[in-house]
Each structure stands twice: as structure tokens, then as C-alpha cells.
Write a structure and sequence with these properties.
Distance between the termini of chain A: 56 Å
Shape of chain A: globular
Order of helices and strands of chain A: HHHHHEEEEEEEEHHHHHHH
Strand order of the largest sheet of chain A: 1-4-5-8
Helix content of chain A: 40-55%
Number of helices of chain B: 11
Oligomer: heterodimer
Number of helices of chain A: 12
Strand content of chain A: 5-15%
Radius of gyration of chain B: 21 Å
Helix content of chain B: 40-55%
Structural class of chain B: alpha+beta
Strand content of chain B: 15-25%
Largest interface: A-B, 52 and 50 residues
Number of strands of chain A: 8
Distance between the termini of chain B: 29 Å
Chain lengths: ~400, ~375
């Protein structure tokens, strides 16, 4: 048991380090706000550089611009890259989820047209799954595609998607739509790729409770797509979506924002009970210990996952616990940090609040993190069903035609 | 990255599981639980000695297998899973570890081969009453090589041959070895939350003792010993917590209510998912503790604290929610649920309560921060 690279991994790390040393940006461009996208030019430039050197998608086959590398090599690159002041990465969802779906299901011509530009950061892709009527229950999607009655085989899409990350700066997307309302919900779905610059597509940023606008509503009004834009067979959309979502837990990262060490530093500087520092308050110390233990537990769970990858094994289900812990911790830690300020905690002003109001930002963003990429509740269902093998929930809509499903409103 | 046990260590673990399933089923554990006169399972103790487990981490020159602490960790996990009713922790995690850490050559040569062979049972005696012990409240004292004082509770104090005793000598805390067969030692068994792990009140009156380690370093030494024990106990707790999750799952999959198995209700599914999450956090922290223990890393105090806190939380949660999942039947003496509920309390308290470890952890983090600054 140790934390060392194998000789091959060490050699790869050296190669990556040398390349990053020579090529990575020396200073961060754009805003540090993870919800902002004003560093887009820098992001695109960095992505192009990585793609040219084969580092954009290391595990992809060489013919598509990858290195045919291992997941461990990708992790090593990510670890080393994070040590540099690199710009934000708006390509993650596209390259992690959408483009692999295109590569699995599209024809050669489509792949040749889109894979390269996406890899090089020239074009950005979005994933259009969630709807106002179905977040956790994506298979209940109502956005519909109907065949045009002119013999062209084309489809017309109408409806609305929501919570689409990055749609405001995306060029293309993959969208799951209802093509047959007369069969049960999972069987009547079909997946397409489409051009988000189509005049029938309207992207409206969502004003989040946190103040930012990282997500969007996307409206489709008579958007005409060719049958060749279909990914997988008609009615197979759900199966196709599973290929996309397989990668989601890897693509949606852990908690961002201030963690236990920033909290500890803030507590040390904040007056607590009886004039001592807040870090001397027993209630604060006990919580700090719990968060440290959780953070360490997740860190070493990642080390166990990495070990499995390093040994050429498939990681066990232990990697599924990350977001359940980190999102709740982010919320509780932020709230304790704000409460620690006592009356002063009311102030949410970057110039006045400690750490440029980082804890206040976490406090207001954490509710979203507990929902995005699988709610706390859905993740518990996933662990219960896929890890522990407990029965699936009773699905009252399983054998009901979509059009007859009870919908509330 | 090689943050996992080796194939050999995993093989040892699966052999240990088979051995304990054959030699320590809960029907055997219950013989100790139900019989007040029975302090431990002497047959199992002999069999475990025969497996060489007592000396797994003891060097070969002192009669052990000379393997290492990682091997001891996998054995500990299986002992915890089996709720084994033997003085393994007292003898191996506390006494043997203390002697290997701070004993002189003579003490090593005298004690370690006997421990490895299963000839002696050990104990550690620090507590003197309710609450957290500190240097100013410590009463037991040594003068002219003789110990006088009262220690309560001492786990396995009623059956141990040798005890490590924390006491003051010339006002300075030290750690001392006492032979409990000496006529000057009065032993009185006390009732415990977990009757499969006994404890005693030990009264020393001019008992001859030999010091282990340096004068004045008693508390530092106890901390170091507890750090080492905490990692091994964390593996026992993780093993127990995993067993609780299995029991809850098995029961939930066969128990019907309102026309379907209770495992199909989200209230139960989410409870079991929470157990799983806590168990994984416990396991990952325990692994890091194992690495720190095995390499004697400077991170050991922090790693051990984190392992103990995570493992105590996981086993507590798992053992109480296992009873809850079972419903009424889980509250009966005949179901095994309470064996784990009891053992989870024993293991959480035996080397100091989680609250104390949380304070120690934060103190270490503060010191680390100061050093880094």
C-alpha cells in the first residue's frame, strides 16, 4: 500500500509535467467566478493547444484525436493540469457526454464533421435532457418531434428543455424528444443532435437564486431536423441517453467553493465566545473535525478508485458517494461559517464579508448542487438499487401509454 | 497509485473470514453473552493463537510472523465483523503495540513471544472514573517501584496477566507494567454494555511494576499507543458496520409489509444507502490510517483520529439503524442486532470517546497549520 505511481505512470506524469510547464498559461484569464464565462477566448485557446498535442481527450482513439490512453493517464493529466492557472472548461459536458454519444451512434460523415471541432474547442456542445415536467424523471420528457408529412423524412421539434448548462454559448446539442406518445414513456423517446443556432431555438438564461446564470431554458418552435440527425433508432432514445448519462457522474465534479481549511482559517480570525477566537468554540471544533473526516474519506475513496484504474480494474461503486457528501457539506459548512460571524453574517458584500464572501456564495449555490446531476434522493436510490441491489421503486406509469400518464399540471 | 491491500493480504482476509465463520458464529458469541461467568471464548482464543494472528505484526525474532500492520488490519476487520469475544484488542493493539513501540529489549524478549503464542492476555489501564482523564486528575501513583491506585474500567482486566498502567511517579506521569497475578492486585469484574467484552475494577496496593518508556512521558506514550490502536479498532468497527448493513439488507429483502418487501420502500432504501456511504467513508479513512501505521508516517496522529471518528460514526449509525430496519424483532435478545449495537459502544469508548478524538484532531490540524505557516 502506497501512493506511488507505477514506473509507467511516473514516466507519463513526467511527460505531462514537461509539456504543461512549456505550454500552460502562466496567469489566469477571465473571472474566477465559476458561473461566469468571460474567459471563453482563453478557454478556447487552451483547448486548441491541448488538442494539438493529443491531451484534449486522452482516452479517445488516436484516429479521433486522442491518445488511445488509459483512464489513469487522463487522471494524471487532470491532476497536473490543475496545478496551473488554466482557464475554465466549458467543453466538459460536450466532450464528456454529448460527443461520445455522437461517436457511438452517428454516421461516419457526421462524426468527421463534428468530432474534430469539438475536440479543439471550436464548437461547444450542450446536453438537452431535463424539462420543466421532468428533472429526475427524464423519461417523462414532453418535447416532441413529429415527422414532416412531405416525404423528406425530416422531423419538426416543439417544446422546451430546462437547466441546460452552457446553452447560451453552445453551438450544438443532443436532445431527447418524444416521437411516440402512444407507448409507455421509455419506449417512445428518440435522440437527435441539432444546431442550437437554428432560428427556431430560443435560449433564455435562468436567473438562479444564487444570482448567477449558468443554466438556461431552451425553447423549440418548429425546429426542423433531418432524419440523419437521429442518434440511434426511433424509439431507442432512452437507451441512447444511458450512454450519455453513464459519463455524467464523472463530468459533474464535486463541490466547488470554500472547504474545511478555509473554514478553519476563517474561524481562527473570527472572534468567538468569551472573546476567544471562534476556532476555540467546542461546537465549531466538533463540526470542523467532522468535515475534515468526510473530506479525507472522499479523497481516499478517490485514491481507491484511482488504484483500481491503475490496476486495470473497473472501479467499484464506492465512487458514487462523492456528491451526496460534498454538496451537503458545502451547504452546512457555508452556513456555519456565516453564523460564526454572528450579526455581521447578514452582510453579503464581497468588499466587507470575509474571503470576498466566498461562504455566502457557497451558501446560495449549494441548494443547486444538491439537485444538479442527480438529486440527493435520486443518488440514494442509485446506491440502493445499483450498489446494494435493492428493488426498484414501484413505477405506476410503466405500462401506461405516455399520453395517458397522470401529469398533475 | 497503489492504495489498496495486496492480493496476499486479501487472501489472508478471506481465509480469516472462513475461519471465523467456522469458529466464531454468533451462536458461539452468545455463549459468552449469556454466561456471566464466561469472560471470553477461551477455545477461540487458542484457535486464533494457532493461526498466528496474535503475532502477525510481531517480528520473527520475538516469535511472531513478522508480517506487518496491514496484515493485522485485515484480520481486525474480520474480527469486528464476527463480533469475536476475545481479548484480541487488549493484548495485540494495546499491549503488544506498546511494547514494540516503547519497551526495552528485556521487555520485548519477555513479553512478545508469550503474546504471539497466546500464553498471556494483556490489558491497558488508564481510566479512573467518569469523564476524561488528565495529568492533574490522575491519582494512581508509583513509589519505589510499587504502584498504588484504582483503575476502572479495565477492559479484560479480569482475565489479563499483564496490564499497562498509567500512573504518576514523583509527580510525573509514566506508563508501567504490572503482573496482575500478584497478590497485591484486587480484581473485581464490572458489568459492561457489551458482555462479550468484559472489564474489571483493578485495585493496586504496593504492586511491583516496571516502567515502559521514559519517566514523565506517560500521556504522550498513551496517545501514541491509542493512535496505533485506533487504526486497528477502526478496521474492527468497519467490519462490524459492514455486517450491520448486510443484516439490514438481508432482512429488508425478505420482510413483507403492505404487500411488498420493505426493501422496496424509499425510507428503507435511503437509510441503507446512508449506511453504505458512512461505511465507505470509514473504510477509506481506515485505509489511510493503515498506510500511516504501517509506514510509521508523521501523519499517523491525524490519520488515526480521522479513522477513529469515521469508524465510530459508521458503526454507531449502522448498528442502530440495523435494529430500526428489523423493527420489533430487532429489539429482541434472540436477534443478533444488539450484539453489534453493544460492540459499537464498546469499540467507540475503549480508546477514548469520539468527542475526545475530534478535539485531538483539530488540535493536530491547528499545529500543522502553524508549522506550515
Amino acid at each position: 500500500m502506497d501512493f506511488n505511481d507505477t514506473p509507467e505512470e511516473a514516466a507519463y506524469r513526467k511527460q505531462v509535467r514537461d509539456w504543461l510547464e512549456a505550454n500552460a498559461p502562466k496567469a489566469r484569464e477571465g473571472s474566477a467566478d465559476p458561473e461566469a464565462s468571460d474567459g471563453m477566448a482563453a478557454s478556447k485557446a487552451w483547448q486548441a493547444k491541448k488538442a494539438a498535442a493529443g491531451y484534449a481527450c486522452i482516452t479517445w482513439p488516436k484516429e479521433w484525436g486522442g491518445q488511445g490512453g488509459t483512464p489513469v493517464q487522463q487522471v494524471i493529466f487532470n491532476q497536473e493540469e490543475a496545478k496551473h492557472p488554466i482557464p475554465g472548461n466549458p467543453f466538459q459536458i460536450g466532450l464528456g457526454m454529448c460527443v461520445p454519444t455522437v461517436m457511438t451512434f452517428a454516421d461516419e460523415e457526421t462524426k468527421k464533421r463534428f468530432v474534430g471541432p469539438a475536440l479543439r474547442g471550436e464548437e461547444i456542445w450542450s446536453q438537452l435532457f431535463s424539462e420543466p415536467s421532468g428533472g429526475s424523471d427524464v423519461a417523462a420528457s414532453r418535447t416532441k418531434a413529429e415527422r414532416v408529412d412531405d416525404g423528406s423524412g425530416d422531423w419538426v421539434i416543439n417544446g422546451q428543455k430546462v437547466w441546460t448548462t452552457g446553452a447560451q454559448f453552445s453551438d450544438y446539442g443532443i436532445v431527447i424528444v418524444r416521437t411516440n406518445p402512444d407507448v409507455p414513456k421509455h419506449k417512445g423517446l428518440t435522440m437527435f443532435w441539432l444546431d442550437l443556432k437554428d432560428p427556431g431555438v430560443e435560449v433564455k438564461p435562468i436567473h438562479q437564486m444564487s444570482g448567477g446564470s449558468g443554466f438556461n431554458e431552451v425553447f423549440f418552435t418548429n425546429v426542423r431536423v433531418k432524419d440523419s440527425q437521429r442518434l440511434g433508432a426511433e424509439g431507442d432514445g432512452w437507451k441512447v441517453s444511458l450512454v450519455t448519462l453513464m459519463n455524467e457522474r464523472l463530468a459533474v465534479g464535486g463541490a466547488t467553493g470554500a472547504g474545511w481549511s478555509q473554514f478553519m482559517e476563517a474561524a481562527r480570525k473570527t472572534p468567538g465566545l468569551d472573546g476567544a477566537s471562534a476556532l476555540q468554540d467546542q461546537s465549531v471544533r466538533e463540526k470542523l473535525a467532522d468535515w475534515y473526516v468526510q473530506a479525507e474519506g472522499l479523497k481516499h475513496t478517490r485514491n481507491r478508485t484511482m488504484t483500481a484504474l491503475s490496476r486495470g480494474q473497473t472501479p467499484g461503486p464506492e465512487s458514487s458517494i462523492g456528491k451526496i457528501i460534498s454538496a451537503v457539506q458545502m451547504q452546512e459548512l457555508a452556513n456555519t461559517a456565516v453564523e460564526m460571524l454572528d450579526q455581521y453574517g447578514i452582510i453579503n458584500d464581497e468588499d466587507l464579508a470575509p474571503l470576498s464572501a466566498a461562504f455566502h456564495w457557497s451558501l446560495m449555490f449549494a441548494p443547486g448542487l444538491r439537485i444538479a446531476g442527480g438529486t440527493d434522493e435520486i443518488l440514494r436510490n442509485i446506491i440502493a438499487e445499483r450498489v446494494l441491489g435493492l428493488p426498484g421503486d414501484i413505477r405506476v406509469d410503466k405500462d401506461v401509454a405516455f399520453k395517458d400518464m397522470p401529469t398533475g399540471r | 497509485m497503489n492504495f489498496d491491500f495486496s492480493d496476499d493480504q486479501k487472501f489472508l482476509k478471506s481465509e480469516a473470514r472462513k475461519f471465523l465463520e467456522a469458529n466464531s458464529p454468533t451462536s458461539r458469541v452468545r455463549k459468552v453473552l449469556d454466561d456471566d461467568a464466561k469472560a471470553y471464548d477461551a477455545d477461540l482464543w487458542k484457535a486464533v493463537a494457532g493461526q498466528g494472528w496474535l503475532g502477525a505484526a510481531i517480528p520473527e525474532e520475538h516469535g511472531g510472523l513478522g508480517l506487518g500492520h496491514l496484515e493485522l488490519c485485515v484480520i481486525a476487520e474480520e474480527l469486528g465483523r464476527a463480533v469475536a469475544p476475545i481479548p484480541f484488542a487488549s493484548t495485540v493493539y494495546f499491549l503488544a503495540e506498546a511494547i514494540m513501540l516503547a519497551g526495552n529489549d528485556e521487555q520485548k524478549a519477555y513479553l512478545l513471544p508469550k503474546i504471539a503464542a497466546g500464553e498471556i492476555i494483556g490489558a491497558i489501564a488508564t481510566s479512573e472514573g467518569p469523564g476524561v482523564l488528565n495529568a492533574s486528575s490522575l491519582q494512581a501513583s508509583v513509589a519505589d517501584g510499587k504502584l498504588t491506585g484504582v483503575k476502572i474500567p479495565v477492559t479484560d482486566g479480569d482475565i489479563a496477566n499483564v496490564a499497562l498502567v498509567l500512573a504518576k511517579e514523583n509527580g510525573k506521569p509514566g506508563l508501567f507494567l504490572a503482573e496482575l497475578s500478584d497478590a497485591s492486585v484486587a480484581r473485581e469484574a464490572v458489568k459492561t454494555l457489551d458482555p462479550t467484552r468484559d472489564a474489571a475494577k483493578l485495585t493496586f496496593k504496593d504492586t511491583p511494576v516496571r516502567r515502559v518508556g521514559n519517566a514523565g512521558e506517560g500521556f504522550e506514550l498513551v496517545e501514541q499507543i491509542f493512535d496505533r490502536a485506533a487504526v486497528l479498532l477502526a478496521f474492527e468497527q468497519t467490519g462490524g458496520a459492514d455486517r450491520c448493513l448486510e443484516m439490514a439488507k438481508e432482512y429488508a429483502m425478505e420482510r413483507y409489509a403492505f404487500g411488498r418487501v420493505i426493501a422496496s420502500y424509499q425510507a428503507i432504501k435511503h437509510k441503507l444507502a446512508d449506511m453504505y456511504v458512512k461505511n465507505e467513508l470509514s473504510r477509506s479513512n481506515a485505509y489511510y490510517g493503515a498506510w500511516a501505521l504501517n509506514t510509521n508516517a508523521p501523519e499517523l496522529p491525524v490519520a488515526a483520529s480521522a479513522a477513529r471518528i469515521a469508524a465510530s460514526e459508521a458503526y454507531w449509525f449502522g448498528s442502530k439503524e440495523n435494529i430500526q430496519t428489523h423493527g420489533g424483532i430487532g429489539f429482541t435478545w434472540e436477534m443478533d442486532c444488539h450484539l453489534h449495537y453493544r460492540r459499537s459502544r464498546q469499540l467507540s469508548l475503549v480508546a477514548g470517546a469520539p468527542r475526545v478524538w475530534k478535539e485531538r484532531l483539530v488540535s493536530h490540524l491547528e499545529r500543522r497549520n502553524v508549522e506550515a505557516a
